[in-house]
């Protein structure tokens, strides 16, 4: 089954998939299926598109005067690191780790990350069950969901 799901997803133009449709796709996959499909080029494409969308789904009116660097470490077949910089009412995302000090670092596996950003997981529950690890400003991490339009499946 995972091979057919992987083939179907490999053919998707993720840039053309709405956030709501992406949330429905993720909701329909088990943690095991996500783990099986998040490999190689498909993983890079999915993560790349999710992080590109963060800039578009950013809500500057909610962020106000927030100035913070948020580092995301997504573990899986390899560690993928992205940084989200929020400053002066804008959000910029870059792949890779800079030498800048992150105000908070969030670390989680592929499946948990996709469930979180698609609105299919509760970040508090993920933290309590240790599927989401935090280093740094826990208060900032707790408020991150209000700074972005998170789809609902």
What does it look like?
The chain has 153 residues and is of the alpha+beta class. It has a single domain (2-147), classed as Nonspecific Lipid-transfer Protein, Chain A (2-Layer Sandwich), CATH 3.30.1050.10. Helix content is 44%, strand content 22%. A five-stranded mixed β-sheet has the order 3-2-1-4-5. Strand 1 (68-75) and strand 2 form a beta hairpin. It is globular, with a radius of gyration of 15 Å.
Which tags fit this structure?
5-stranded mixed β-sheet; 153 residues; alpha+beta; Nonspecific Lipid-transfer Protein, Chain A; 22% strand; SCP2_sterol-bd_dom; SCP2_sterol-bd_dom_sf
- Give the proportion of residues in helices: 40-55%
Which percent range describes the beta-strand content? 15-25%
Which CATH first-tier class would you pick? Alpha Beta
Q: What is the CATH T-level topology?
A: Nonspecific Lipid-transfer Protein, Chain A
User: How large is the count of helical segments?
Assistant: 8
Task: Briefly note the structural class of the backbone.
Answer: alpha+beta
Question: Do you know the CATH architecture?
Answer: 2-Layer Sandwich
Terminal CA distance reads: 22 Å
The helix/strand series, from N terminus to C terminus, equals: HHHHHEEEEHHEH
Mean pLDDT: 90
User: In terms of quaternary structure, what is this?
Assistant: single chain
The order of strands across the largest sheet is 3-2-1-4-5
Alpha-carbon Rg, integer: 15 Å
Summarize the biggest pleated sheet.
5 strands, mixed
Principal-axis shape equals globular
Task: Write out the CATH superfamily name.
Answer: SCP2 sterol-binding domain
Number of strands: 5
User: How many discrete structural domains?
Assistant: 1
Uncertain parts: none
């Amino acid at each position: 089954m995972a091979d057919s799901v992987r083939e179907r997803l490999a053919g998707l133009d993720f840039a053309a998939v709405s956030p709501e449709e992406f949330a429905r796709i993720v909701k329909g996959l088990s943690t095991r299926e996500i783990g099986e499909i998040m490999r190689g080029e498909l993983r890079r494409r999915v993560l790349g598109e999710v992080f590109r969308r963060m800039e578009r789904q950013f809500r500057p009116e909610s962020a106000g005067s927030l100035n913070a660097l948020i580092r995301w470490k997504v573990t899986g077949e390899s560690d993928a690191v992205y940084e989200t910089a929020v400053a002066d009412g804008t959000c910029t995302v870059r792949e890779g780790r800079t030498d800048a000090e992150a105000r908070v670092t969030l670390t989680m596996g592929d499946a948990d990350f996709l469930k979180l950003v698609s609105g299919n997981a509760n970040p508090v529950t993920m933290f309590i069950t240790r599927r989401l690890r935090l280093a740094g400003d826990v208060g900032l991490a707790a408020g991150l969901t209000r700074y972005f339009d998170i789809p609902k499946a």
